[in-house]
Target: Alkane 1-monooxygenase
Amino acid sequence: MHVGKSVFFQNPDEDRSDSALYKHEIALAEQAEPLGFESFWIAEHHFGGYDVSPNTLQLLTYLAAKTKHVRLGSSVVVLPWHEPLRVAEELSVLDHLSNGRLLFGIGRGLGRHEFEGFRLNMGESRQRFQEYAKGILNAFDTGIIESEGELWKQPPVQLRPQPLAPLRNRTYASSVSPESMDIVAELGAGIMVIAQKPWDVTVADVTKYHDRFVELNGYEPPKPLLMSFVIVHESSAAAQELHEQYHYRYAKSTFDWYEFSNPGLAKVPGYEYYGKFAANIEKHGADNFVKFLAELQVYGTPDEVVEQLTDHVRRIDGVGMTAVLSFAGMSPEIATANQELFAEKVLPRLKTIDPERALPPIAVPAHA
Model:
């Protein structure tokens, strides 16, 4: 299976400078290719310490220059926050500079205050996502970017540099709500699974998506990619202790950032699904929901982590996984030890498991 690394610029307690945070996380990223990781994935967030990563493609372009073989993925570019023509141009530049190593992760955003910071109507996000994604993916098929959508009208212009190769078979959407399933399937995208639901629900969602994709397109979708927050230690007791500190802090930061307990989200067009989160939290309590999110993550000894990740990837019939190994304010010492042990005793074993599971190959030019 494929094994990647997610770079997460998280500073939830704001206990270090952004300069120190960047030096730490970039240093870990630059070590990843020599350690054997096969891809980088970088998320997009704005206006706070949850993830200090406002320009995913800029960071990936930097890492493209520092690496030779590792794939470069966005997890995700939040399309409604951007001018889609500029996104397409930046993607094409990155694809050329990296010799086709680009993987395009897309999403429509969930942080209410991020939409407010950009002065955008959150209720338009689903339609903007659909129009922008369709126009960008079509542009990489045709070399022309254009749109006659209700919210985005773009007269036809050439995409330059000319697309190196189509993006459609190397595009992944973050976990989709039931209401967005058809939109993403029609785009021809695979899905990126981040554990935030009971596993039986996640598996059912992935199965429904697969079946709907085949029904709409007549061929198999790209296999899903799992993103997991991972803690590994030689001592099971030490792993448990780190889990209780860092997975719980991560889960609490996610709970707060996305306002999962806010029933008002369900009243925003396109976000009706999240009303179920608020209802469950009201019923069971915020602390129990945070604990639930934390316990969905992976931790233990190398043997235990290999077993858990293999099980999770197989449950979703995935192509592989990408590990977040530094998060929730981990010190450089703890994060480095976590990454190095994962690379030494987990990563090589995962690569030998289900080796037929592989990402789409590196893009080759559509025209000589």
